[in-house]
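Could you join me in thinking about how sequence relates to backbone shape in a protein? We need material for that, and I hope you will provide a protein of your own picking. Once you have written the record down, we can walk along the chain together:

…
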Amino acid sequence: SGAAVGAMMPGEMPPPAATAAAAGTCANCGALQQNINEYVAALIALKQKMIDGDRLLTEYQQKCTDILYFSIKISALRCQVEQMLQKILPLEKCQEELGSLKAELEEKKVCL
């Protein structure tokens, strides 16, 4: 089989209409390439924002976990303090009574 129908021979120039169409296509290709570049740049920026967002979310969740942990610790410490206060109050009363008894003994000792 020979050359395809409509194929140009070497050295033959394309018709003027084809040249204009080709130039228009190249301009469109340039615009398309620029749009693609901008789209890719926007996607990369979005991906970076997502990565940053994930990192911030992880840090926030860690802080929430820490707060919960410390809240539980603080509650436990409050309970311990409350228990210690309940043990101390009777001891303070005993100390007062001992003070009174000691004073009475001193008085009796003086009398004797």
Observations:
- The CA atoms of residues 1 and 12 lie 21 Å apart.
- Residues 16-111 form the longest helix (96 residues).
- The radius of gyration is 46 Å.
